[in-house]
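Run log // design_07
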């Protein structure tokens, strides 16, 4: 009764194979089209409406991630927000206060960024004076982005002077071998839970990068025949399908371990799982043929009535973003629309 499995969900007008990963949390249409520009992702949208209540408004994490090119998190302007793939670096950000000189250096960097924004604002105002109406509209959006960045810098400066939380956990060591995919995934999931427990953030994205995962350890001494990405393009090879099934099963074991750990962590109002929504899924329904319909989606936790399989029309899918609207409303965002999602998802009721 801790999770719901969905079928018959997808993003309308989102197709094109690998590029659709950029749209998993945005729902932006036609990612392979000329001039495509992504839109804001679910995590950033939530922060915009809820405000920054923790040291980190969101944490964007990755496993075997190509940091410069892949992330689940995108700004309102459609810019990729890089993912952190080092558990050790993440631990330092959350728990290591640093010396007074280090804090002073970080504050100085924040002031420098503020000075750069002042310069950009002045340049934009000069442009605005001799721009047409269409350009002025774009400049207004630009000014809005500058104001948001300035607000973020101000909040970051306030948090720099506050003591960081304490933890009994030892600093983790990064696993550098990309072939050790599942130990890396398990470690990053533990770090994500630690971020929630310490209230370092309340919103996390975690992207698993199949492209950057080479031949990897599946179970015991067994290794994959090829890299993770190529394994998903099995071409109906019985052996590749067998290994892919074992790999999927191992991912489910990692997810089950996370659910158990969240459930076993008590809070004043219940368990950490009760107060956490965990969304798990993929941007492809069938990676072998790059099909982006009928996405595999699972939602756990929170205060929804779980323990069910919500099966929608496989030929006329419900927008995945309707599930996002349901999630947003449960965490206190008063919105009836996100991307292509109008209203909440039928059948997913609060408990």
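design_07 sequence
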């Amino acid at each position: 009764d801790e999770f719901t499995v969905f079928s018959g969900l997808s993003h309308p007008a989102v197709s094109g194979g690998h590029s659709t990963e950029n749209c998993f949390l945005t729902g932006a249409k036609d990612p392979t089209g000329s001039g495509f520009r992504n839109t804001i992702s679910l995590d950033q949208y939530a922060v915009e409406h809820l405000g920054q209540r923790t040291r980190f408004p969101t944490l964007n994490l990755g496993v075997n991630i190509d940091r410069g090119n892949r992330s689940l998190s995108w700004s309102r302007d459609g810019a990729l927000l890089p993912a952190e793939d080092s558990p050790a670096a993440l631990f330092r950000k959350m728990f290591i206060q640093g010396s007074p000189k280090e804090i002073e250096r970080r504050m100085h960097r924040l002031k420098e960024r503020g000075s750069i924004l002042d310069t950009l604002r002045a340049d934009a105002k000069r442009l605005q004076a001799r721009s047409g109406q269409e350009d002025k509209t774009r400049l207004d959006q630009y000014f809005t982005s500058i104001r948001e960045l300035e607000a973020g810098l101000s909040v970051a400066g306030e948090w720099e002077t506050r003591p960081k939380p304490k933890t009994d956990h030892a600093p983790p060591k990064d696993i550098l071998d990309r072939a050790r995919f599942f130990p890396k995934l398990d470690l990053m999931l533990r770090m994500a839970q630690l971020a929630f427990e310490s209230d370092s953030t309340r919103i996390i994205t975690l992207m698993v990068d199949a492209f950057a995962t080479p031949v990897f350890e599946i179970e015991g001494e067994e290794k994959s025949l090829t890299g993770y990405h190529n394994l998903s393009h099995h071409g109906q090879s019985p052996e590749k399908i067998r290994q892919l099934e074992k790999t999927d099963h191992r991912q489910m074991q990692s997810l089950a371990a996370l659910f158990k750990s969240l459930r076993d962590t008590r809070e004043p109002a219940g368990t950490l799982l009760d107060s956490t929504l965990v969304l798990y899924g993929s941007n492809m329904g069938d990676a072998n043929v790059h099909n982006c319909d009928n996405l595999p989606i699972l939602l756990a936790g929170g205060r929804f009535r779980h323990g069910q399989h919500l099966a929608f029309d496989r030929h006329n899918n419900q927008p995945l973003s309707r599930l996002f609207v349901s999630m947003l409303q449960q965490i206190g965002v008063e919105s009836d629309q996100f991307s292509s999602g109008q209203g909440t998802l039928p059948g997913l009721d609060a408990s």
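Residues 164 and 197 are 13 Å apart (CA to CA).
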